[in-house]
């Protein structure tokens, strides 16, 4: 395996992985919100039910996006404990962070508008 070659830099890799995970959740949330705003501008005064659905989706997305970023950023206090286990502090179970990020990544993607609402 290649783990023997990265053992020295493993804490730095974990640190950058954590930071990139937080940034990526924010970026994905921003992209999803941008697409929703675009669709709202396209349908402007038509499709009332779709507009309400999109607004609900955007609120749900903002809440889950913030929760996902907080779940990753606050899973250990201090956050450095994620990549340096020798520090004193506390962490919650990884299953909690996994559940929150799955809701953000997977469940919010299932919130797609069904075709019958669009009258297609």
Describe this structure in words.
This protein has one domain. The longest helix has 34 residues, at 10-43. It has helices at residues 3-6, 10-43, 48-73, 94-107, 115-118, and strands at residues 76-77, 90-91. The termini are far apart. The model is unreliable at 108-120 (pLDDT under 50). Helices cover 68% and strands 3% of the residues. By secondary structure, the chain is mainly alpha-helical. It has five helices and two strands. The chain has a two-stranded antiparallel sheet. Helix 3 packs antiparallel against helix 4.
Could you name the key traits of this structure?
2 strands; 120 residues; 3% strand; 68% helix; mainly alpha; two-stranded antiparallel ribbon; 5 helices
Query: Helix proportion of residues, in percent?
Result: 55-70%
Q: Indicate how many domains the architecture comprises.
A: 1
> Rough shape?
elongated
Q: What string, H for helix and E for strand, traces the elements in order? A: HHHEEHH
Stretches where pLDDT falls below 50 for ≥5 residues? 108-120
Rg to the nearest angstrom? 19 Å
Mean pLDDT: 78
Beta strand count: 2
Alpha-carbon distance between the two ends: 52 Å
Tell me the major beta sheet.
2 strands, antiparallel
Q: How would you summarize what this structure contains?
A:
This protein has 120 residues and is mainly alpha-helical. It has helices at residues 3-6, 10-43, 48-73, 94-107, 115-118, and strands at residues 76-77, 90-91.
